[in-house]
Amino acid sequence: MRGARILSVGSAVPNLSINNHKISEIVETSDEWIVTRTGIKERRILTGVNKSVVDLAALASIRALKKISMKPKDIDLIILATSSPNDLFGSASQLQHQIGANKAAAFDLTAACSGFVLGVVTASQFIQNGSYNNILVVGADVLSKWTNWSDRSTCILFGDGAGAAIIQSCSKRQNGILGFQLNTDGQKSDQLSIAYRNNVLADAKWPTSKGEFEYIHMNGKEVYKFAVSKVPSSILDCLDSLKISVQDVNWMLLHQANERILNAVAEKLGITSDKIIANLRKYGNTSAASIPLALDEALQQSKINKNDIIVMAGFGAGLTWATVVIQWKC
Ligand code: COA
């Protein structure tokens, strides 16, 4: 088995920033309520009819490639984690074309806010078994397109963004993707969803239907309880399997859903607040983009050092939750 490590990270967010005061002009809420319950102050929203998740994903990818002077044609595989594609058949091929990675195979991965972690784990399997050398994993979402802007319990939470990581093969000694834990509880899929509503066409010649997707629906209290109870045990199981103690963890990088969730998980694990990577104050919950977006920012701030142990955990719709423990090798 070969090793795999993250070589470079890039990110992109739209220019338009909507702060809590602006949101309080469209729904009955306040900056104080939103900050106290979630920690979010503002979020970025993609505008323009011709702009899509692929544009953000492409910009994040190009930034990641530029940092290591890698050419798009050197990418073997693209995994685009998104729940807000341009095309239900998949958007990874559009990304492949837009960045000129014409030698890469490309596919979408749908796992909501766990998508980036699942993408990293999937990439590491392809690399460790010798199938591919250079894999681009992108987490990108524009959930603003599926937000009901008159529902104050959800429209305060989400923002748009993209984060990209280039994962490369290396020697076993240099391996940086140490282990993972993946979980799904499909029985609770209705707690957080963008459901498809089927309408039977009465005047059709044979039984047929045409439907549409609804807005984001969420049971906030249940999702909160789920995250705070399931994520710590997933992290602990993963660390235990690797014989790494919580004290050896340098950084905890959770899906940026809610500051209270981040703090509660850290407290349960006995991780001090100075080890939490958080930027949701500025971007809100960017779904599959949130972890690589925060990772890119932490790297730009030179927080992360060589050989640091980073616990990354995504959680959300599905319900899914996923942990990957990495060691920074660059
Ligand atoms: N502004 C003001 N009041 C609001 C509000 C808002 N934006 N949204 C809800 N409220 C009101 C409710 O109507 C309710 O009023 P009532 O008591 O008169 O009925 C009250 O605030 C409490 O609502 P509740 O839903 O119980 O709030 P909460 O403390 O659970 O906080 C969330 C709501 C959404 C912030 C919280 O449940 C949460 O963060 N859950 C996790 C969501 C998440 O992270 N999802 C993504 C995971 S990937």
UniProtKB/TrEMBL annotation:
The last Arg residue of the ACP-binding site is essential for the weak association between ACP/AcpP and FabH. The keyword Transferase applies. Catalyzes the condensation reaction of fatty acid synthesis by the addition to an acyl acceptor of two carbons from malonyl-ACP. Catalyzes the first condensation reaction which initiates fatty acid synthesis and may therefore play a role in governing the total rate of fatty acid production. Possesses both acetoacetyl-ACP synthase and acetyl transacylase activities. Its substrate specificity determines the biosynthesis of branched-chain and/or straight-chain of fatty acids. Its EC number is 2.3.1.180. This is Beta-ketoacyl-[acyl-carrier-protein] synthase III. One of its GO terms (cellular component) is cytoplasm. Belongs to the thiolase-like superfamily. FabH family. It catalyses: malonyl-[ACP] + acetyl-CoA + H(+) = 3-oxobutanoyl-[ACP] + CO2 + CoA. The keyword Plastid applies. The lineage of its organism: Eukaryota, Rhodophyta, Florideophyceae, Rhodymeniophycidae, Rhodymeniales. Keywords: Acyltransferase, Cytoplasm, Fatty acid biosynthesis, Fatty acid metabolism, Lipid biosynthesis, Lipid metabolism, Multifunctional enzyme, Plastid, Transferase. Residues 256-260 are annotated as: ACP-binding. The active site is at 113, 255, 285. One of its GO terms (biological process) is fatty acid biosynthetic process. InterPro entries: ACP_syn_III_C, ACP_syn_III_N, FabH, Thiolase-like. Pathway: Lipid metabolism; fatty acid biosynthesis. Residues 240-328 form the Beta-ketoacyl-[acyl-carrier-protein] synthase III C-terminal domain. Its main location: cytoplasm. Homodimer. Pfam families: ACP_syn_III (PF08545), ACP_syn_III_C (PF08541). One of its GO terms (molecular function) is beta-ketoacyl-acyl-carrier-protein synthase III activity.
